[in-house]
Amino acid sequence: MKEQRVLKEEYEVVAYPKLTHVRAGVVQIVNRNTHVHRALEMGLALEGDGLVRVNDNSFSVHAGSLFLFNSNEPHEIIASGTEGVKVAYLQVANSFCSDYVSCFRNLELLKNDLSVYLPPQQRREIIGLMVQSLLDYFAEPGDMYGLRCVCSIGQLYSKLLSYVPYRQMTEAAYLARNKKMARLSRITEYIDTYYSEKITLEELAKSENVTKTYLSHFIHDNLNMTFQEYVSSMRFEKALKLIRNTTMCLTDISVVSGFSDVKYLSRMLEKHFGMPAQECFTKLRSEAEKISSVEVQTFASEAVAKEWIQEFRKTYSV
Predict the structure, then answer these.
(1) Which residues have C-beta within 8 Å of that of residue 279, sequence separation ≥ 6?
(2) What is the mean pLDDT of the segment spanning 137-158?
(3) Does the reported pTM lie above 0.70?
(4) For the residues 296-301, what does the mean pLDDT come to?
(5) What is the total count of domains within the chain?
(6) pLDDT band for position 2 (cuts 50, 70, 90)
(7) Which of 24, 69, 86, 238 can bridge 46 by disulfide, Cβ–Cβ 3.0-4.6 Å?
(8) Using one digit for the tens of pLDDT, what is the confidence trace for 300-311?
(9) Residue-wise pLDDT tens digits, 188-229
(10) Three-state SS sequence of the chain
(11) Please, what is the average pLDDT of the chain?
């Protein structure tokens, strides 16, 4: 008898190891599939080029690009080249300073691509405040560590909310969005678990106790791609990881990743990176060896993250 698959209600977990309600870091991304998390996230591209997809929009990013994602807002980041794009991020939970700023709980900013929306002077000011917030976060803990971090992040978000339009959702809308995102997280977690096997929309719909038609529209409306497109994108992300951290050949990788034919994976590589599949395969593997990395998103250590941010500040004089 076939084992019944169960959908899990799970988000990408945001842990706060250094400062309550706040998390920061630098990640080198080749491909980060569509995901959500329970935190307002601001991103700053330090190096490299890529593409961000959020809601039904997409925009290019390069060194100096500034962007943000609301809590529970599905988004995807894809590098333009095999070397990846370095992104510094600052995640602030909805409960940040909730005793003093109640609006954080149901806040929704109405712009994602701040590099296009903000005038140069305002953009430069926000980047400078973000860089300072990141450096304060990565500083050695001391008696005033938490206070410095809260002050710099508070100043950053105070300026941000004075420049970027936002709205406060009603309690009903806030709860409805959370319920919707809980379903979306169960679906993406399910696909992440069973990507190497045959996955059908019918099986997912049955697990969610909805019709196939409803679920098809739900996935498309929230991920801006069809069910099968999302499954393929998840398999592609897994294939990229295997290229970078194993010695497996492309044919074996395609099988382990759930592709029925290596030609399909080859076409995805060619379309994504704009070069023949074998050349792309070789470059991805060599780039992984160069940076001693085994993942398609590599989180820098605090020391390295601080170094990269300081180098960015010198280069861009912020």
Answers:
(1) none
(2) 92
(3) yes
(4) 75
(5) 2
(6) very low
(7) 86
(8) 899 999 999 999
(9) 989 999 999 999 999 999 989 999 999 999 999 988 899 999
(10) CCCCCCCCCCCECCCCCCECCEEEEEEEECEEEEECECCEEEEEEEECCEEEEECCEEEEECCCCEEEECCCCCEEEEECCCCCEEEEEEEECCCCCCCCCHHHHHEEECCCEHHHHCCHHHHHHHHHHHHHHHHHHCCCCCCCHHHHHHHHHHHHHHHHHHHCCEEECCHHHHHHHHHHHHHHHHHHHHHHHHCCCCCCHHHHHHHHCCCHHHHHHHHHHHHCCCHHHHHHHHHHHHHHHHHHHCCCCHHHHHHHCCCCCHHHHHHHHHHHHCCCHHHHHHHHHHHHHHCCCCCCEEECCHHHHHHHHHHHHHHHCC
(11) 88
Q: Residue 301 burial by CB count (10 A; 0-12/13-18/19+): exposed, middle or buried?
A: exposed
The CATH number assigned to the domain holding 205 equals 1.10.10.60
Distance CA 311, CA 47 (A): 10
Whether 113 and 232 share a structural domain: no
Asked if the structure places residue 16 within a domain, the reply is no
Q: Which domain holds residue 154?
A: 22-170+296-316
> For residues 76 and 25, what is the distance between their CA atoms, to the nearest angstrom?
17
